[in-house]
Design a protein that fits this description.
This protein is an all-alpha fold and about 80 residues long. The protein has one domain. About 60% of the residues lie in helices and about 0% in strands. It contains four helices and no strands.
Length: about 80
């Protein structure tokens, strides 16, 4: 994972527990980016708001293509 402190799935409580459970329910796991923001769940919520404001004005396919192109330009395989 990362070299930053995170809250494990076993130790998550309150709002973070709800966020972890929601991701497990819809994705089957807790993504690393959520774990990386586990000490600041309000930052994760803000990120989700930004992402949704971007996505709401474009079709999902276009959003996926933009994401792939951006990752390729950054040489990011993650």
């Amino acid at each position: 994972m990362t070299f930053i402190e995170t809250v494990s799935e076993e130790k998550a409580t309150g709002q973070l527990r709800e966020m972890y459970d929601a991701r497990v329910q819809d994705r089957g796991y807790v993504p690393n980016y959520l774990k990386a923001l586990s000490l600041r769940p309000e930052v994760y919520q803000a990120w989700c708001g930004l992402e949704m404001s971007i996505r709401k004005n474009m079709r999902f396919r276009r959003y996926e293509l933009v994401t792939i192109v951006a990752a390729a330009n950054l040489e990011c395989s993650y």
